[in-house]
Amino acid sequence: MTDTPMIDLSDVQKYYGDYHALRGITATIRPGEFFSLLGPSGCGKTTLLRTIAGFEEISSGMIRIDGRDMAGVPANRRPTNMVFQSYAIFPHLSVAENVGFGLRRLGLDAAEKTRRIGTALEMVGLAGYGARAAHALSGGQRQRVALARALILKPKVLLLDEPLSALDKKMREQMQVELIKLQRQVGITFILVTHDQEEALVMSDRIAVMFEGEIAQLADPETLYRRPTSRRVAEFIGVMNFLPATIVSEGSGRAALEVQGLGRCEVDAPPGGVASDGGTTVGMRPETLTILYDGQAPTDRSADGTVDEVVYYGDMTYYDVRLDGTDRPVRISMRNVFGRPVLNIKARVRVGWSPGALVLFR
Domain range spanning residue 263? Predict the structure, then answer.
């Protein structure tokens, strides 16, 4: 990937009458990047994807693709192709006819069409399926046909509108890995729209989290997960515990806190400082807390609490632990290694934690 953007979005606005669907979207997407638009239903992510594709006109702002302003450029003239949520497979055509459908306007001879169709099918793991009826395919196979049909035209950008949402959990997880491999193989820019946080974290180089037509945070998956810039992003990405805290002092990018249930500690202050009234909130992910078993020393700090709830998942057990001095439990995830017992409700426990795992919100 290079720093020269494949897609440059500059103050993109979109209105539907009085409804403000996109509110000043500004972002760049790099060549060869797997980029995701993540957010709840109605946040504007699909609208933004459709404006990039040319299916929707923007009200103001600018969209550039590969350095070219897309103002007035229709969808069929843009260097993009789109895989829809429904796949839009023609059931009366064969797999090969579906995949080669877009080649008809290129004026290719039959041999070249056959070669390109074969290459596209091989790319998505469907070599030898050309003669099969499209209606006889499984959901995962239909998804691959839709990908092959989009990739056969060699777009610079592939747009994916929740392409895995119709698949069951096991197939969806399998296709996530296959899409990552395919994107690396073809080397073009992928833009994925999804409301599934795990899907975005697994597949993306960078993620734009959207709420109400705006980008709330744009970062790589690890930064989004470990260092969300707002409580809203933190709540949307995975699970995070929140505890009230009081600011004792602040300076040089650090803040001294008194955290309910954890006591006094020092953490990184967020950009722009913290709440002026001294009250704030800290967050921590369930896996950054650990239950200390008999004889186990804490790696940094510890706090006492009582188990409120136990949820066993086989490889993991999730505990809701009410720390002494708190009014609500925190979630703790523990891997079920050999010899480690699963605790009972009402068990007294010591919880190990580190100030470095705390995220301070303004």
Answer: 239-361
| Distance between CA atoms of residues 248 and 26, nearest Å | 37
Structural domain count, the chain: 2
Asked whether residue 185 is assigned to any structural domain, the reply reads yes
Q: 251 with 245: CB under 8 angstroms?
A: no
198 and 276 co-located in one domain: no
Evaluate whether 45 touches 39 at the Cβ level (below 8 Å): yes
Q: What is the pTM of this model?
A: 0.89
For position 132, which CATH number holds?
3.40.50.300
Main-chain phi, psi angles of 239, to 5 degrees? -115, 135
Q: What is the pLDDT of residues 106-163, one digit of tens each?
A: 778 889 889 989 988 888 888 888 889 888 888 888 888 888 888 888 899 999 998 8
The predicted-structure confidence for 57-102, as pLDDT tens digits, reads as follows: 999 999 999 999 999 999 999 999 998 877 778 888 899 988 988 8
Measured in degrees and rounded to the nearest 5, phi and psi for residue 173 equal -65, -40
H helices within the chain, ranges in order?
A: 45-53, 95-99, 110-123, 139-151, 169-186, 197-203, 221-226, 231-236
* Domain end position, chosen among 173, 202, 233: 233
Q: Give me 321's structure tokens.
A: 């632990």
Query: pLDDT tens digits, residue range 187-207?
Result: 999 999 999 999 999 999 999
Distance CA 139, CA 136 (A): 10
Query: Cα–Cα distance between 247 and 257 in angstroms, integer?
Result: 5
Q: Please tell me the total number of residues recorded for the chain in this structure.
A: 362
